[in-house]
Amino acid sequence: MDMLYDLVLCGLVLIVAGSIFLVKRVFTSILLFICLGLIITLCWIRLNAVDVAIAEAAIGAGLTGAMLVAAWRKLGAEESD
């Protein structure tokens, strides 16, 4: 059962990472990037590296995702001017 869980996580990482490059909209790719960070957090938890998982969730998914959304909003506001 553990091997199945690991294979599902690996498959999700590959699918989400590949989808980031295939989508047409920038906001969708940002959301997929945040989802990728959360899935990788689960991978770190499976490897019993909880401290790395916390850092990945906080920095990789949280802070970086928020900065990307803020940059996307700012660029969208400048384009409409």
Structure description:
- This protein is mainly α and 81 residues long.
- 90% of the residues lie in helices and 0% in strands.
- The protein is built from three helices and no strands.
- It has helices at 2-22, 26-46, 50-80.
- The longest helix is centred in the C-terminal third of the chain and has 31 residues, at 50-80.
- It is flat.
- The model has no long low-confidence stretch (mean pLDDT 91).
Feature tags:
81 residues; single chain; mainly alpha; 3 helices
Number of strands: 0
The overall pLDDT average reads: 91
Q: What is the overall shape?
A: flat
Q: What letter string, H or E per element, gives the SSE order? A: HHH
Q: Which structural class should the secondary elements be placed in?
A: mainly alpha
Largest sheet: none
Strand content: under 5%
Ranges with pLDDT <50 over ≥5 residues? Answer: none
Tally of helical runs: 3
Question: Topology of this protein?
Answer:
Layout: H1 2-22, H2 26-46, H3 50-80
